[in-house]
Structures are given as structure tokens and as C-alpha cells.
Amino acid sequence: MVRVSRLHPWPATVEEAARIQDRLRPLVRLAAAQPSPIRTAAGVDVAYSTASDRLVAGVAVLDTETLETVDTAIATGTASFPYATGFLAFRELPTLVEALERLATTPDLLVCDGQGLAHPRRFGLACHLGVLTDLPSIGVAKTPLGRYDPPAPARGSSTDLLDGAEVIGRALRTQDNIKPVFVSVGHKIDLDAACEHVLSLAPRYRLPEPTRRADQLVRNALVS
């Protein structure tokens, strides 16, 4: 089970959500004081119904050496918070938290299908989940929130993801000649380590295996 701190109530408005992000953002740690071995990594993802406000949140925990799934959990809920740029986490977090608390395993790393520091307010989903759980967390997004030069075509190539002159993440090529993913720090990890973990967790496909498994989990649950 993942222990989740109740650091705030779920907001009803964008203004309330912005105040929560401003209050929690200073709690983000950009590197672990004493890095621990990462033996398990949990991918988190959410799928939405096209016919209603129903959503399914899922977590898939993998052994980082074998990439075998060792635990899963899902939860269903409703997207009650309004859709607004920079505040997507508040639509997903209540149900994601429920799914995390249903795990029998506490993972060593959270890999989020979304942003970390690469966020307009520097507090994306990966930062928020990392602070609430106090677990190392990484944001791995499919689309950039910032500008970047395309990395070289070989797997492992990367370039800085920038907002003005500020480095907010990296465009990382996880497979040869495939579009990069966009990695940013969530909590208790630095950017170099985050990219190393993403590469090791993506041996065959563009996206890391934990989030791929979580995506499959929630899609299957949504139609069942």
C-alpha cells in the first residue's frame, strides 16, 4: 500500500487549485538526499470514457530488472474538476490516489504519463503525486511543454527542453528513429537519473513499460 498524505482538500475551482500548487511547489525535491535502489517502478495512467465523465485510474508495478508485473490496482471515479490548462492533475488525482492506496506493494519509483516540472506552474502531475506520496517520481510526456531541438536519431540521444533560458526537462530518444518522449523531474530525483531510468524501462518501445502496462490496464477496465 502506498501511504498518501492528505495535504489539501480537493478543490472545486481553478483559483483554489492554483493556490494549492503554489503552496506545495516548494516541497518538491529535485534530487534525493540519499538515493535508494530502484527495484520496482510503478506506471500510473488514466483513461476517460467518451460517453460520460467516468474515468479509470490504474497503477502497474514492475520489477525493474525483469520488467515483470508484480502488482496492479485500479479505481473508477468521475472527472468532476473542470478541464483547464495546467490543472489536469486535479481531474485525475482523486482516483489515482485511490488506486495507489489499493496496491499491496510500495514502489520505489512512480512513472507518470504526464508532466513534472515541465509545467506552466512547475508543478505537474508527477510533482504533485511525488509530494503526496513522498516517493521519487518522473513525468514522461508524449508531447512537449516547451521548446527543444530534435535529438540525434540514436536511442539515448537527448536535448534540453526549455522555457526561455530555463531547462525544465529533456527530449529523450528511447528508440532509434522514433519520436522522443519528454522527461521531467517530479520529486526526489534529478534529471540525469530520471532519463537513465526511463531508458532502462523502455527497452523495446517508445514509452516506458510501467506506463504502457498501466495504459493497457485502464483501457481494458474502461470497456469491461
The CATH first-level class comes to Alpha Beta
- Strand order, sheet with most strands: 3-2-1-4-5-8-7-6
Give the overall silhouette: globular
What pattern of helices and strands is seen along the backbone? HEEEHEHEEEEHH
**Strand percent estimate:** 25-35%
CATH topology: archaeoglobus fulgidus dsm 4304 fold
What name goes with the CATH superfamily?
archaeoglobus fulgidus dsm 4304 superfamily
Kindly state the number of beta strands: 8
Helix content, binned percent: 25-40%
Main sheet? 8 strands, mixed
In CATH, the architecture is 2-Layer Sandwich
| Rounded Rg | 16 Å
Roughly how many Å apart are the termini? 25 Å
Number of domains: 1
Could you explain the architecture of this structure?
This protein is an alpha+beta fold. It has one domain (20-223): 2-Layer Sandwich (archaeoglobus fulgidus dsm 4304 fold). The chain has helices at residues 14-24, 89-101, 125-133, 191-200, 209-223; strands at residues 40-48, 54-63, 69-78, 109-112, 137-141, 158-163, 166-172, 181-187. Strands 3-2-1-4-5-8-7-6 form an eight-stranded mixed β-sheet, sandwiched between helices. The longest helix is centred in the last third of the chain and has 15 residues, at 209-223. The radius of gyration is 16 Å and the shape is globular. The model has no long low-confidence stretch (mean pLDDT 95).
